Amino acid sequence: MSGSSLTWTSEPAGPLQGAIRVPGDKSISHRAVMFAALADGVSHIRGFLEGEDTRATARAFSQMGVRIDRPSDSERIVHGVGLHGLSAPASAIDCGNAGTGMRLLAGLLSAQSFDSRLVGDESLSRRPMRRVIEPLARMGARISAEEGGLPPLRIHGGQRLRGIEYALPVASAQVKSAVLLAGLYASGETQVIEPHPTRDYTERMLAAFGWPITFSEGHARLSGGHRLQATDVVVPADFSSAAFFLVAASIVPGSDVLLTDVGLNPRRTGLLEALRLMGASISVENPRTLGGESVGDLRVRYSPLRGIDVPVALVPDMIDEFPALFVAAAAARGTTRVTGAAELRVKESDRIAVMARGLRALGCALTETDDGAIIEGGRLHAGSADSAGDHRCAMSLAVAGLVAGGPVTIADCANVATSFPGFLELAARCGMRVGEAAAVAG
Ligand code: S3P
């Protein structure tokens, strides 16, 4: 089904209740498949995200000769081929909607002996790739892109890479990871320095797979010439998927929802802090470690929210959660100001523009700025919004519908399957009234 053919309706709902586990973390699932594929030995991944993005990454490695078994849903057994064991793919690798897939693969394919080609869907084909091409070229990689540094990417194999010290111009875990993955194959040392610390799953997982790496907040360093050893990975529930429920239960009166096994890596939980500053009632229960990551159960209860100036320092730690935060702001009392978030304009969609249009269509007074928005909280009304094929905007607008004066239709929702298969079922289970309005073959 084409991305533009699926429309949802979201209707005002009563209190949300229940305990749910959202699907596995997308960032960790991508990396688990990649590192397991390049390791010596067999790795077992549990809690793998059955989303289109992460399945595309698994498919990429199958195309390059890696055997990946799927004994059950959310489980993968990856028969690693070793760092130098990949074979040339017979056709282009399709990364689908996934920026993470394409940028990380660009790093590791730069170092292979064979040529490869990375393609993506309409959204990914508009996303900037110069940010990875430039540092990888400095390492000796040869990558060509379309005009403006856009995909498809043609990667010329057989290059000798050398380690670099790279200060990232923007805080990006994808760019950092692409450089580190190329660094596995490079001569000498590769170092990355970030303007603000970003999610450190690549560093943590490389260490778990036995690669010597030194890292601290905003800095990572490794050398080439080692090997990855197979290991088992347990993937926690994705904080970014939990985010829709955190906002929904915060704004629907009487709600009380428990989200279990949620990954709480501090580089991901900025929304928790922002919502608490707004007056949300969210507690972390049963904090523990799962597969080397901090996890906990998040209990969220309705609490009236007030507008805030979102602290700029929180932005990288909640970069994927702004569509949900915009909805919380629209339902809050007072004004919320978002600044320092220009990266939102180059995500799966221009998330500032898409959320601004969507929320304005529901009666919210919202002013776009270059790097954020000024959102006046208040009452929302029934209306029609368009997610522009962006999974996180679609789910966020569905949450807005829960507190609108009447039904809200949201166009172009099929891409929710990229990160959150089963969203509608889980939403229904805790009392949301969101469903498919029309599914026209497209
Ligand atoms: C991701 C990093 C972030 C995030 C994306 C996943 C990752 O992108 O938005 O959803 O897994 O490394 P940037 O690193 O480009 O900010």
What does it look like?
The active site is at residue 320. Residues 12-425 form the Enolpyruvate transferase domain. This protein has 442 residues and is α+β, with helices and mostly antiparallel strands. It has two domains: 3-24 and 236-440, UDP-n-acetylglucosamine1-carboxyvinyl-transferase, Chain (Alpha-beta prism), CATH 3.65.10.10; 26-234, Alpha-beta prism (UDP-n-acetylglucosamine1-carboxyvinyl-transferase, Chain), CATH 3.65.10.10. Helix content is 28%, strand content 27%. It is built from twelve helices and 23 strands. The strands form six sheets. The chain has a four-stranded mixed β-sheet. Strand 10 (165-167), helix 5 (173-183) and strand 11 form a beta-alpha-beta unit. It is globular and about 60 Å long. Shikimate-3-phosphate (S3P) binds at residues 27, 100, 172-174, 177, 198-199, 319-320, 343.
What structural category do the secondary elements indicate?
alpha+beta
Number of strands: 23
Into which percentage range does the β-strand content fall? 25-35%
- Separation of the first and last Cα atoms: 6 Å
Radius of gyration: 21 Å
CATH class (first level) name of the largest domain: Alpha Beta
The CATH architecture of the largest domain would be Alpha-beta prism
The number of helices is: 12
